Amino acid sequence: MKVADNGSWNENDIDEGTKRAKQSRTAWSVAAIPAEADHSITQTASGSNSPEMPLPQKSPSTVYLLSDYSVVVRIPDKSSSPVPSPGIYRLKCATYIFAVCLSLFIYICCLSNISSAFSLLGSKGLAKAIQVSPLINDPISAVVVGMLATVILQSPQTTTNVLVSMVAANMLTVHDAIPVMIGSELGSSLVNGLVSIAYSSDPTQFERAFAAATLGDNFNICCLFIIFPVELITGVLEICGKWIVDLLVSEQGIKFKTLELLTDPVNNFILQVNDEELRNASLYPEMFDEHHTFVLRCVFYNGSRIYNCPYNHIFSYTHMTDRAIGWIVLISSITVLIFCLISIVYFIQKLLDERVSKNVRKLLSKECPGAWKPCTGYTVMLVGLLVTLLLQSNSIFNSSLTPMVGSGVVTLEEMYPLVMGSNIGGSFSGVLAALSADSSRFEKSLHMAMCQVLYNIFGTLMFYVVPATRQLPIYMSKRLGQIENEVFIHYTIVC
């Protein structure tokens, strides 16, 4: 006979114990003792005293049957758990904050290295080969490519960062990259769907959890069927993104450094390339012979070295080809980038401890006072945006909301503005990737990143601000949850 982790017992189990006691024609009693109490108990049976019996050393959440007439429930004493001192707690918080900042710094360095690696891989005409590829030239297939990339990586942010780096390296134009970006917004519900399976034992909870898991993709499907055709006809995202970039960038070009000022010492130690030659080679490969190297080296192709060489990076004395160096830097940078994303999420969760669900429930139960009551949803949306900026992953944030909806802590309607804010916050990771690019590639990178931000803002305006269309993604998710619940039940019965 088991009890829940909170120390409470199941009434059905108590009824079962009652029947057993009646069958033995003895009286029985239930004793609940704290964990630190003396491990002995005396019970009475049919009015007579029984000798003291030692209580076995077991889990605090176990029910003990003593001679079929005693039931003992050991209740954990929460006051006995050690409470860290304020100094230790502050030290742990400071350590987690430092770990988050360090992971974020390495993450930004990886973005710049990915851009340099794509520049090397895009030399010798590879940029033209990608630009004329039917998978990219056809907008429909480009959407599928972006969706598959997100399904494989399960991180729209990683897909976007790679896409921005390819635009910065002249491997893709902004016009060709927009359909891939729209497709990358889809396909991030796999992790959420796996989380919802944990509620498969309860049909009601499973239906709610699966509806929550697919809410983000249903919103993106609605945006796809409306914004994507409009973009193909008018190019509104590309035009508006260029207009915003022109407002931020002077006509003379960019002459300042952004995050590059912080990341240059690390990036220059890993790899240094000739950016000007790379830009020319990606468009005019016939200008350079097959032995030309774009990596700033201290050795020549014939093996001779440069004395007093000014270059001091990992590959300055290597004889590897540019293509091999590009693949090494690309694979290692993407691996470290994913590790940094996981580390950021881990340390943020440690920093927040177990207060997230309580704070979310407390926040969602409040409303803006007085005439500002209609702005409650937009305030919640802002919270989702800020949390996603901290986590650097809207898929992680959405998957953390799925169990809350499944257990009934948060409703689907309350989750919806959080998802909207999470989508907008996730798109700003592309802006971060653009800020990590060097000054010569900053404008194109920012243009691509702003297109994704505008895509999510336009989607929010159409499917949240307008009350009539606000219910469409929610209805689609609820209906999909009902269908999946029925299919899952039938599958379980058949198996």
From TrEMBL:
Pfam families: Na_Pi_cotrans
GO terms of biological process kind: sodium-dependent phosphate transport
TM stretches of this protein: 94-114, 324-348, 375-395, 447-466
Single Gene Ontology MF annotation: sodium:phosphate symporter activity
Chain spans, region Disordered: 1-23
Keyword Cell membrane assigned: yes
Membrane topology: Multi-pass membrane protein
Subcellular location: Apical cell membrane
InterPro entries cross-referenced by the UniProt entry: Na/Pi_transpt
GO cellular component assignments: apical plasma membrane
Protein family according to the UniProt entry: Belongs to the SLC34A transporter family.
The protein, known as: Sodium/phosphate cotransporter 2A
Organism: Diploscapter pachys
